[in-house]
Amino acid sequence: ELNSTWNDLASIEHIVVSHTHRGKGVAHSLIEFAKKWALSRQLLGIRLETQTNNVPACNLYAKCGFTLGGIDLFTYKTRPQVSNETAMYWYWFSGAQDDA
Predict the structure, then answer these.
(1) Strand ranges inside the chain, DSSP E
(2) Start and end of every N-acetyltransferase domain (predicted)?
(3) What does the pLDDT look like over 17-32, one tens digit per residue?
(4) Mean pLDDT across 61-88
């Protein structure tokens, strides 16, 4: 799910790749599509969130040029099945924010 936010960023809400297609560059292609989508709408970048236990996603985002912008220790505290997870917020900026 891809949408724009109040602060001129695109937001990726979900990236899901079936097990049979993982490791084939599908997620990377989806992120590259999202970058082009954001730029075509004159957005300044992309934000997304994952959890500390999702190491493959964290590695993917770093490889795609995202920077860890912050963590939230309490996002999942009300969900007993995942209450020990920490939310990680990742950002990619297009460079256009320098012109704004």
Answers:
(1) 2-4, 9-12, 45-51, 67-72, 87-93
(2) 1-96
(3) 999 999 999 999 999 9
(4) 96
